[in-house]
Amino acid sequence: MPTAREPDAARFDGLVEYTPYAGWLRCDARPRYAPPLERDAAIRRVEALLGAVRPLLTGTEET
Length: 63
Known about the structure:
Elements: H1 19-27, H2 39-58
Protein backbone atom coordinates (compact mmCIF):
# COMPACT_ATOMS: atom_id res chain seq x y z
CA MET A 1 0.00 0.00 0.00
CA PRO A 2 1.42 3.41 -0.96
CA THR A 3 2.39 5.85 1.76
CA ALA A 4 3.13 9.58 1.74
CA ARG A 5 6.79 8.76 1.15
CA GLU A 6 6.02 6.11 -1.47
CA PRO A 7 3.33 7.30 -3.87
CA ASP A 8 1.38 4.78 -5.92
CA ALA A 9 3.74 4.50 -8.88
CA ALA A 10 1.43 2.07 -10.67
CA ARG A 11 -0.82 4.96 -11.69
CA PHE A 12 2.03 6.25 -13.85
CA ASP A 13 2.75 2.96 -15.63
CA GLY A 14 0.91 4.18 -18.72
CA LEU A 15 3.50 6.87 -19.33
CA VAL A 16 5.79 4.31 -20.96
CA GLU A 17 3.43 4.34 -23.94
CA TYR A 18 4.91 7.74 -24.82
CA THR A 19 8.46 6.41 -25.15
CA PRO A 20 8.25 5.79 -28.94
CA TYR A 21 7.09 9.37 -29.47
CA ALA A 22 10.35 10.78 -28.14
CA GLY A 23 12.36 9.76 -31.19
CA TRP A 24 9.55 10.47 -33.63
CA LEU A 25 9.03 13.96 -32.32
CA ARG A 26 12.73 14.81 -32.30
CA CYS A 27 13.19 13.57 -35.85
CA ASP A 28 9.74 14.56 -37.17
CA ALA A 29 9.43 11.01 -38.45
CA ARG A 30 6.20 9.68 -36.93
CA PRO A 31 5.14 6.52 -38.77
CA ARG A 32 1.80 6.63 -40.59
CA TYR A 33 0.44 3.76 -38.49
CA ALA A 34 1.18 5.54 -35.21
CA PRO A 35 -1.84 6.71 -33.24
CA PRO A 36 -2.11 10.45 -32.75
CA LEU A 37 -0.39 11.85 -29.69
CA GLU A 38 -2.88 13.33 -27.26
CA ARG A 39 -0.66 16.13 -26.04
CA ASP A 40 -3.00 17.61 -23.43
CA ALA A 41 -3.52 14.23 -21.77
CA ALA A 42 0.21 13.49 -21.90
CA ILE A 43 1.03 16.82 -20.29
CA ARG A 44 -1.49 16.25 -17.49
CA ARG A 45 -0.07 12.78 -16.78
CA VAL A 46 3.52 14.01 -16.68
CA GLU A 47 2.55 16.94 -14.46
CA ALA A 48 0.88 14.49 -12.06
CA LEU A 49 4.05 12.40 -11.99
CA LEU A 50 6.20 15.45 -11.31
CA GLY A 51 3.82 16.56 -8.59
CA ALA A 52 4.16 13.17 -6.91
CA VAL A 53 7.94 12.87 -7.06
CA ARG A 54 9.13 16.48 -6.76
CA PRO A 55 8.48 16.65 -2.99
CA LEU A 56 10.42 13.41 -2.53
CA LEU A 57 13.37 14.72 -4.52
CA THR A 58 13.47 18.10 -2.84
CA GLY A 59 12.83 16.81 0.68
CA THR A 60 9.69 18.90 1.08
CA GLU A 61 7.15 16.08 1.38
CA GLU A 62 4.36 16.65 3.84
CA THR A 63 3.98 14.27 6.78
